[in-house]
Structures are given as structure tokens and as C-alpha cells.
Amino acid sequence: MARAAGRVLGIVILLVAAAAGLLVIRLSYREPRTDDAMVRANVVGIAPHVSGPIVTLNVVDNQEVHEGDVLFVIDPRPFEIALERQRAALLLAGSDVAATQQAVESATAEVTRVEAEREYAHDYRRRLEPLLPKRFVTRDRYDEATVKARAADAGVEKARRDLDRQRKLLAQYGDVNAHVAAARAAVRAAELDLDYCTVRAPFPARVTNLNIARGEYARAGQEVFALVDTRTWYVLANFQETYLDAIRPGMPADVYLMSYPGRRFRGTVQGIGWAVLSQDARTEGVLPDVQPSLNWVRLAQRIPVRVELEPADAEQPFRMGMTAVVTVRPH
Asked: DSSP letters of 268-323?
């Protein structure tokens, strides 16, 4: 009797264990969970558009800044001088254009004058031509009129070429003069360079990795520190690829952080990653280089899933790099 009861109890235990295992597997696929997750935020490197020594530094490491706050200022004096130089060049361009415009008007008047002289020269030659056979005029006089008519033609061509050259020098296209437009663009570029001397925060953020001091030379395009964008926080959770069929964008998610035990944070699945770096194969030229593998057990790949977090609590703020546990809930 005792032996039979023991067998029954063993069978019951096995059935309960199997049922519990099946339930855990079902729940795992119905509500995927992972502890391979980390809090992330967008990080933007701050680099100046112009080069120069830093004369003002208004922030310290880890400081909170708001959109539009002045972060640092680069010595503006060289750029102020460059702006004055370009403004003077704009005035000179206007003066040159006015002088060229006068030259165009003079060349136009000259074309009108020589065209009138040519018309008179050809008319005079035409009036002498019927008189030549009747000997009312001499051959020399007729030839002289012909030479003057041809010279008038050449004078008109020269005057027209001079007028065309002056118009090209003027570089006027409709209501826009190219010389003045170029000078104005140079002034605008100099104004931008001067404005770029003051570097401002593009969004609410936290300063990080600040390792500079006032007086250091900042180079254009070279990052001097970074800003952590505090407007949007998310968790990058790595789920096994076998769970991806149960995860869809828009699904709610529960997020627990090791930094705040017992506190549940809400999130929403934003998207599922489309690519991860393969460690076993790479492309060399036109052929893939596949390394030999002796793994007998194939492990499921982990695919990153981005979960956007609800706005942070001021008392329990998010910090980039915090360890997280994420559970995706069905709708």
C-alpha cells in the first residue's frame, strides 16, 4: 500500500512539474521578459562651428541646462573684425556697381552715336553712287565715302563689344546684381560665424564628459563635451529571437530598475531591431568569410527591442546605463 501511494505521489509531482513548466513556457511567450536591458537616452556631442579660444564657460559637468542656455563662448574679436571687413567690401561693391552702371550708360550712348554716324555714312555713299557714272563726282570722293561707311561699321561693332563687356562687368541679372549679392552673402556668412561664437544648448539636457576649461582652444567640428537629451528616455531590451513573434510595436511594457527596487515604470514598445552584428561571419570583398564553428548547441540570438519610457519622476530620475528588467504585456 505504501509503495503504491509513493508511486502515485511521484506521478502527481511529475505531472505538476510538467504543468508548471508548460505554464511558465506559455507565459514566457505570451508575456516575454528579459533582464538584459539598459536605460538609454540620446547623446549629442557639442562641437563649435568656428575655432578659437574659449573665453567664457558657463557649465560644469553633470549640470542641467535648458534649451537656449549659453554653454560657452569662443573669442569673438577676430570674427567681429572679419564682419567689419565684409561690410566694407559690400560698400565697395555697391560703389563699383554704380561706377559700372555709369560706364554701361556711357557705352550705350556711344553705340547710339556711332550707329547714327554709320547711317549717315552709308546714306552719303548711296547718294554718291548714281552720280559716279555721270562724272558728277570723282572716283576718289566715292571711294572716300565707301571707306568712311566701312569705318562706321567697324566703329559700331567696337562700341557694341564695349557695351557688352561693360554689361558683363556689371553682372546684373534682372533685379539682382551678382557682385552685390556675393558681398551680401559674405556679410551674412561673417554674421553667422560671429553668432557661432556663442554656443547654446539645443534642447533640455544634462552636461556629461566635460573635460575643458576656460582658455582652451576649441576647434571647429571637434566635440568638446556631450549633452544627454533628457526629453526622451527609453530602454534597450535584448530579447531572444524566439520571443519576437509575441512582440509588436505599441505594446505596453513594465520596466523595473535595479536602482529603484519595487518601483514599476511604464513603457511602450517603439520598435524591434532589424540588424545585429554577426560574430561568426563578415564580408571580405565580394565573398562572405564564414568562420568554422564547432558549437553543438545553437543559442538563440538576442535582438534589441526599444521601449520608450513615460516621463521621469523628479525624485527618481532616469540615468543612462541603469540596469533594467522588461516585461512586454499583451494588449
From this structure: EEEEE-S----SSEEEETTEEEEPP---SSPPPPEEEEEEEEPPPPSSS---TT-E
